[in-house]
Known about the structure:
Layout: E1 2-3, E2 24-25, H1 47-50, H2 56-61, H3 66-82, E3 89-92, H4 96-114, H5 120-143, E4 150-154, E5 160-164
Parallel strand pairs: 3-4
Antiparallel strand pairs: 1-2, 4-5
Helix pairs in contact: 4-5
Amino acid sequence: VYVPVFDKSLFSGKGDRLPETEWTRVEGRVDVIIFEGWIVGARPVDEEELKNPVTAAERETDPHGSCRRIINERLKEYEILFDEIDDLVVLAVPGVEKIREWRRLQEEKLRKETGNGMTPKEVDRFVDYYIPSTIRYVFPLRNDPRRASLVFLVGQNHNIVGVYGPGAEQI
């Protein structure tokens, strides 16, 4: 199996995945697979939930909902894969503005270390694009810990401030 390799400093609006020739090759049997991603475990929503934009940016960029309907349809394609996940672990961020703030910090660090990275204005445009789906699909994982094996509540300073297990009990 070839495992994709990503480099955030290369983000160009087309993605940050390195060419297949630079992917990691894994041979033989493995005991654990960690499948990581921003929207892993998210489920499509009912059509009713797609009718109204959830942010001002979404209202401007997708007033008729065509983009959000495409994302919802793509999530339906992933349901069979997500159903195979034995244990879903969710990192629950404090809120939308922390996502923006933390991404700006990441990009600033990337620019210092590599000379590449998004400017604050590019980060805002990037985050504005992803925030509606985060609100619609990812936050429900955080807000309903019964859908995940573990939910780690991330605090304002990137520290873990709480952990919830099945049935929403705090651990």
